[in-house]
Structures are given as structure tokens and as C-alpha cells.
């Protein structure tokens, strides 16, 4: 009889989390970090959440939308293998924690991104927004977090760990009982109100907070005051 999988689950967001925010805008449009962020937010507000409205009010095929928008982004050559990121993820002790992708993107976009980053073999699964099913379920809806727990085989909310660049997603993850980390990159301002218990500038800081999950720091001491502050 197979032994029950009692590992904890660590959920990783993908876009603007596993690779730098606004990299496309800054690189290809020659914008400053501030201008790239402004454009990113405008497009996110105008288009990123528009797919539900397009489907509901204009009868747009969401899978066609995905092909024409997300899958059409010129990511090849922009996103390249990241050795430091891979080293961090390889250091996770998968005997005690399960690395899992958790994204609002569709499956094809998500798989494309992690493959370009050279880390597609380091996650045990993915929970994504399924554009083929209506109504859409995505972060920060409670149903999306429930879906992630179910698909990843989490025993309870208390066994879930989560890192995301979205303040709103982190607020809802924290409220659900997940141990949540808000990623705020170095060129981003500190939010007026912290989204969750932990707030970091780079993914490498996860080793400081969750030393027990990394082979290189297993048995060390977590530097929580340092790790939970900017």
C-alpha cells in the first residue's frame, strides 16, 4: 500500500514572480522601470482582466483570445534559462515539500514560460485558470485557492505556502490560512499596507524564511525579522 503523501505544498506564481516584472516593456520599449510599471498596470487593468468581460458581453472565444494574446507574446529570446533560479528551486527538499505552480494564465502560456526559464522539470504540477470552462475561476477567488489545494493534494490550508507578486492575491492567500510571501521587487515601492506576514525583494530570500525547506539550510535558523521586512 502506498504511503500517504503528507508533504507540505509550496505554491509559486509564474508571471512577474519567476521572472522580473515588466521585462518585456522595459527591454523592448526602452522604458524606465517606473514607466514600465505604469504601462504594465494600465495594460493589466485594461486588458489583463478583460477576458471575462469579453467572453460574457462580446462572445469572444477565450481559447482564441489566449492564442492571439498570451501565446502570441514574443517571449522567445526574452526569457532565457536562469541558472540562479534553477539553483534555488533545485535546493528545495522535495522529501518534505512539494513545489507547485499556481497561475492565472492558461496552461499553454504557463508551460511555455517555465520551459523558457529552464525550470519546467522542477515542479510537480500546476494549477491554472482554465479558459475552456465557464465561469472562469482565478486568483483571488476563494474557489481558485480551493482548486489549488485539491489538485496539489494539500492536507489543509495550514500546509500551504505561497509566493506571489500580486498584493491582492497575497491578501487572499493569507486570509485563507496559507503562509504567504509577497514579492516586491527592488525597483517597486513598498505597499502602504503589507499584504501578508512576509514581504521580500527577491526569491532568494525564501531560504532565510523557510530554512527547513532547503537542503543547503536545513537545520539552520530562520532570520524572520530580516526576511519579513524590505
List the helices and strands and how they pair.
Layout lengths: L7 E5 L10 H6 L4 H16 L1 H9 L3 H7 L14 H8 L6 E6 L4 H10 L9 E2 L14 H11 L7 E5 L2 H10 L2 E5 L14 E3 L5 H4 L14 H4 L3
Parallel strand pairs: 1-2, 1-4, 2-3, 4-5, 5-6
Write the H/E string, N to C.
EHHHHHEHEHEHEEHH
Poorly predicted parts: 42-50, 220-230
Mean pLDDT over the full residue set:
82
Helix content: 25-40%
Nutshell version of this structure?
The protein has 230 residues and is an alpha/beta fold.
Description of the structure:
By secondary structure, the protein is α/β, with parallel strands linked by helices. It has 10 helices and 6 strands. The protein has a 6-stranded parallel β-sheet. It is globular and about 50 Å long. The model is unreliable at 42-50 and 220-230 (pLDDT under 50).
Features:
230 residues; alpha/beta; 37% helix; 11% strand
Amino acid at each position: 500500500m502506498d504511503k500517504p503523501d503528507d508533504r507540505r505544498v509550496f505554491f509559486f506564481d509564474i508571471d512577474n514572480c519567476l521572472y522580473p516584472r515588466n521585462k518585456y516593456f522595459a527591454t523592448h520599449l526602452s522604458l524606465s522601470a517606473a514607466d514600465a510599471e505604469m504601462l504594465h498596470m494600465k495594460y493589466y487593468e485594461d486588458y489583463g482582466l478583460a477576458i471575462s468581460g469579453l467572453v460574457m458581453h462580446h462572445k469572444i472565444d477565450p481559447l482564441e483570445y489566449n492564442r492571439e494574446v498570451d501565446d502570441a507574446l514574443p517571449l522567445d529570446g526574452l526569457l532565457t534559462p536562469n541558472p540562479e533560479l534553477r539553483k534555488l528551486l533545485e535546493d528545495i527538499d522535495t522529501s518534505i515539500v512539494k513545489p507547485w505552480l499556481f497561475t492565472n494564465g492558461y496552461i499553454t502560456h504557463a508551460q511555455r514560460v517555465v520551459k523558457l526559464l529552464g525550470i519546467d522539470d522542477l515542479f510537480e504540477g500546476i494549477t491554472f485558470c482554465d479558459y475552456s470552462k465557464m465561469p472562469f475561476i482565478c486568483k483571488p477567488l476563494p474557489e481558485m485557492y480551493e482548486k489549488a489545494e485539491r489538485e496539489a493534494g494539500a492536507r489543509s490550508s495550514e500546509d500551504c505556502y505561497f509566493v506571489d507578486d500580486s498584493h491582492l492575491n497575497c491578501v487572499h492567500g493569507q486570509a485563507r490560512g496559507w503562509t504567504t510571501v509577497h514579492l516586491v521587487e527592488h525597483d517597486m515601492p513598498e505597499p502602504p499596507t503589507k499584504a501578508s506576514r512576509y514581504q521580500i525583494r527577491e526569491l532568494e530570500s525564501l531560504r532565510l524564511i523557510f530554512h527547513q525547506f532547503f537542503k543547503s539550510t536545513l537545520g539552520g535558523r530562520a532570520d524572520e525579522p530580516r526576511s519579513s521586512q524590505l
